[in-house]
Amino acid sequence: MGCGCCAGVAGRLPGLGAFGGDSQAKLLEMARKDDYVVSNHPHHLKIHFYNGNWYCNGSELEGGCLSGYSKSNVAKNTIPCYQCAGCDYGYCDKCLCKYLTLQFLQ
After folding, report:
1. What is the pTM for the complete model shown?
2. How far apart are CA 16 and CA 62, in angstroms?
């Protein structure tokens, strides 16, 4: 099951309408094969699994983290996150979908 946040990605990004079914699962499946490129960070992100005490940098942006992870509400279980190795910037699944660009498909 997808989180629902990526269902709207097909409408916002050209060429994704043909995915059908669960758009988030398809996006994440394709992105796991390559680097993630987001619209608001200069470095590529890679998937990592943190075992607690992690927060999403989406919490520092307008609207906050779509999963609710912030400095005052850290993830306390093992979750996939999408992190920049060079500067430790990262997103949860939902925020990744919000800022994901088509460059990761190339």
Report:
1. 0.67
2. 25
